[in-house]
Design brief:
It is built from 21 helices and five strands. It has about 450 residues and is an alpha/beta fold. Among the domains are: about 40-130 and about 240-330, Rossmann fold, CATH 3.40.50; about 130-215, no CATH class. A five-stranded parallel sheet has the order 2-3-4-1-5, with helices on both faces. Helix 6 packs across helix 7, helix 8 (about 170-185) packs antiparallel against helix 9 and helix 16 packs parallel to helix 19 (about 385-400). It is globular. The N and C termini lie far apart (about 50 Å). The relative contact order is 0.15. It binds adenosine-5'-triphosphate and magnesium ion. Magnesium ion binds next to helix 4.
Length: about 450
């Protein structure tokens, strides 16, 4: 993807600067400040902006963000997430892992749900943990409506929650929100906390939930997706424009050794896609990120599931630089050397807090750094840039702390390791936690 000229932002707030640098030096994608370093991805962002608008208008949609190892999937997801928050959506995100999946029978789907809820974010709470404030906002909307209409808050609340009761699991969901309200009204913090814990999928026993809240069900493996649908309706009632669910590291499903467990997860994905196509979900968007094998491998990937293959087959004309972002699959191209150059200059800019006079390295230094990387690790330096970014920031840190040091001298000593994909290691049947699924199957 070619990089359009970037107008370098002039100021970088210290909080953003530190968050960006700390994350990148640790090899992880920053949670805030993406706009300061972002390069390329213009058409992809445009496509996703349209998706967000559709969700805000009451629609639904699913996208599969597919890119090679280290090509920028996680970065892209976080970028879209921050745009969605700006557009008044609530976002939740999580990485799949052996213990977190879309479908399971031993708690792994509930665990994924709880992780999503822990990471719930809004514009006012971009760092996560936003569930309590979302519920609080719903309550204050009810109070305002009650005041304006002269009705009692209890009656208004019941009316609004009524529409949830028609959805699977909606009755208890509505009950729990009512409990929150009772806690709010009666100054009972414990009741409020328990209600929030229930909504966050943190109850693991029905008995505990019944004692704490008087409801018979909890969020469990079985109700994973039904609860996301309920939540999307609820956040809309609370005054947000919808819910964006970001699921990263989808390759973990491909790695499940039990065909039955894999298929059950793929069936869940099919249900999500069908719902968004048939209009039976609203204010709800899904972003799934994974490597190409997760999508196209016909033995273990999504393509191994016939109904998904037919829905996710890409436009065969969109090749050789031509794109079609109207289908559900969005391919992320690797960054180019030109992108990488812009990225380095963005990093230099962020490092100096946006002060051009404080740049630690001239443009020549950026070019020399790229040549140095190309010599050491070849193409990987811009295609999978995680390590190169780290090395560059390490170089800047030394230059900053040792004024007067010549960058030319230091550059020769910068060590860079090529980034290698751990997913290409052999798949270990014992670590995917799928034996329980087989056990259930045999019963
Ligand atoms: N468009 C971009 N603009 C600026 N930096 C980017 C961009 N895309 C990726 N990066 C940076 O490149 C590095 C690799 O990106 P990221 O971690 O998102 O890749 P990934 O595809 O999720 O990798 P993996 O396959 O390991 O999950 C990160 O340091 C990230 O900050
Ligand atoms: Mg990633």
């Amino acid at each position: 993807m070619s990089s359009e000229p970037v107008t370098t932002p002039t100021r970088v707030r210290p909080r953003e600067r530190d968050a960006i640098l700390q994350s990148l030096r640790a090899g992880v994608v920053p949670r805030i400040g993406h706009q300061h370093i972002q390069v390329g991805r213009y058409t992809e962002i445009r496509a996703l902006l349209a998706d967000i608008d559709r969700v805000a208008d009451g629609g639904a949609g699913s996208r599969f963000v597919i890119g090679d190892y280290g090509s920028g999937k996680t970065f892209f997801l976080h970028l879209i997430r921050s745009i969605a928050m700006e557009k008044r959506l609530v976002t939740v995100h999580a990485d799949l892992s052996p213990s977190r999946r879309l479908h399971a029978t031993s708690g792994q789907a509930r665990s994924l749900y709880a992780e999503l809820m822990r990471n719930m974010a809004t514009r006012a709470k971009p760092d996560g943990g936003a569930m309590a404030s979302v519920v609080e906002r719903f309550v204050s909307q009810v109070l305002t409506q009650a005041r304006d209409s002269g009705q009692g808050p209890q009656a208004v609340m019941r009316q609004r929650l009524d529409s949830l009761s028609e959805l699977t699991g909606g009755y208890d969901f509505a009950d729990v929100v009512q409990r929150y309200w009772q806690g709010h009204d009666g100054g009972n913090e414990q009741l409020k906390n328990d209600a929030v814990r229930w909504l966050r999928g943190e109850f693991t026993s029905k008995t505990d939930a019944r004692q704490a809240l008087g409801v018979r069900t909890i969020v469990d493996d079985h109700s994973f997706y039904d609860h996301l649908k309920l939540l999307s309706r609820f956040v809309e009632m609370a005054g947000y424009d919808g819910l964006l669910v970001c699921l990263d590291e989808m390759v973990n499903l491909y790695k499940l050794s039990s065909t039955q467990a894999r298929n059950a997860n793929y069936e869940q994905i099919l249900r999500i896609i069908n719902d968004s196509m048939q209009g039976s979900a609203s204010h709800l968007g899904f972003l799934f990120a994974g490597t190409p094998e997760f999508l196209t491998d016909t033995r273990r990937g999504l393509y191994s599931y016939q109904a998904l293959q037919s829905r996710l087959t890409e436009n065969t004309f969109a090749r050789d630089g031509l794109v079609d972002h109207s289908g559900p699959v969005l391919r992320l191209a690797n960054l180019t050397p030109e992108d990488f150059y812009v990225l380095l200059s963005n990093l230099r800019h962020v490092y100096s807090g946006g002060d051009q006079a404080a740049y630690l390295l001239p443009d020549d230094g950026l070019h020399a750094f790229m040549r140095h990387c190309a010599d050491r690790v070849g193409d990987a330096y811009f295609r999978t840039p995680r390590n190169t970014i780290k090395a560059f920031l390490d170089l800047l840190a030394v230059l900053e702390q040792n004024p007067g040091q010549d960058w030319r001298v230091l550059l020769g000593g910068v060590a860079i390791a090529a980034d290698s994909n751990p997913d290409l290691d052999p798949i270990d049947a014992d670590t995917d936690g799928s034996d329980d699924e087989l056990a259930t199957f045999r019963l």
